[in-house]
Write a structure and sequence with these properties.
The protein has 237 residues and is an alpha+beta fold. It has three domains: 78 residues, Elongation Factor Tu (Ef-tu), domain 3 (Beta Barrel), CATH 2.40.30; 80 residues, Beta Barrel (Elongation Factor Tu (Ef-tu), domain 3), CATH 2.40.30; 47 residues, no CATH class. Helix content is 16%, strand content 35%. A seven-stranded antiparallel β-sheet has the order 10-9-13-7-8-12-11. The chain has a six-stranded antiparallel barrel with strand order 1-2-5-4-3-6. The protein is globular, with a radius of gyration of 19 Å. About 8% of the residues have low confidence.
């Protein structure tokens, strides 16, 4: 399973977008040393895991599927757009952020921003179905950047972007209304799945929403709870 760390390695720029029967082939300029990258390697582009299909000295090509175009902000890219880039994690890579899969869970939207000392304070709105996975002081990936959530209020979250992150990423350029790729902490998703299977067994390949404890009928939902015993049994304590 390919993973990323949420630590942006460089900023790329969209060179060309070529329609391919509903999909798009993107050509991206990069500062990566392309001699170290092979065809078939994975690169996270704004937090979306894409596969290198062609490369030149200072650029690479990757296909963006209809699914990715519909559920991420890659569909809004135009030639000249800047994007966050990160190569896939290896056993030699320091885990400076948190484990990120490169699979976007939904789109958030910047609703407010303001300076906060030398940092930037942001408030984002996110889809209701992701609320159960987002916790204060927990991790979240925004356009492929690993960040810590400060506060959660209903379907909005608040966080601070520190000066180093402002310098190394594009987050400081995001204005109100900007749609941003969200990936919740993978541990929260697996914990929910284990909780579901613990109580109800396996039932096919349930997705993010179908496996949700919040979708369990109210008559049985009270029996599905996370206890200290449950956490110890599954290695969380």
């Amino acid at each position: 399973m390919l993973m990323f760390t949420g630590i942006v390695q460089t900023i790329g720029q969209i060179k060309q977008l070529k329609p391919q029967r509903g999909d798009i082939q993107a050509f991206i300029n990069t500062r990566f040393m392309m001699q170290d990258i092979n065809l078939g390697d994975s690169i996270a582009v704004n937090g979306v895991c894409l596969t290198v299909t062609a490369k030149q000295e200072h650029s690479f090509a990757a296909d963006i599927s209809r699914e990715s175009l519909s559920v991420t902000n890659l569909g809004s890219l135009i030639p000249g757009s800047k994007v966050h880039l990160e190569r896939a994690l290896t056993l030699q890579t320091p885990l400076g952020g948190h484990l990120v899969s490169g699979h976007v869970d939904g789109l958030g939207k910047v609703v407010e921003r303001r300076p906060d000392g030398r940092s930037l304070w942001l408030r984002l709105a996110f889809p209701q179905e992701l609320a159960r996975y987002i916790a204060p002081k927990g991790s979240i990936s925004l356009d492929g950047v690993s960040l810590t959530v400060n506060k959660v209020i209903n379907t909005q979250l608040e966080l601070n972007i520190v000066p180093h992150t402002l310098q190394e990423t594009l987050l400081g350029e995001y204005r109100e209304g900007y749609k941003i790729n969200l990936e919740v902490d993978i541990i929260a998703r697996y914990l929910e799945r284990m909780l579901y299977v613990e109580k109800f067994g396996t039932d096919g390949n349930l997705g993010l929403e179908q496996a949700s404890v919040s979708n369990i009928p109210s008559s049985t939902a009270s029996t599905a709870s996370i206890s200290e015993t449950f956490l110890m049994k599954h290695g969380f304590m």
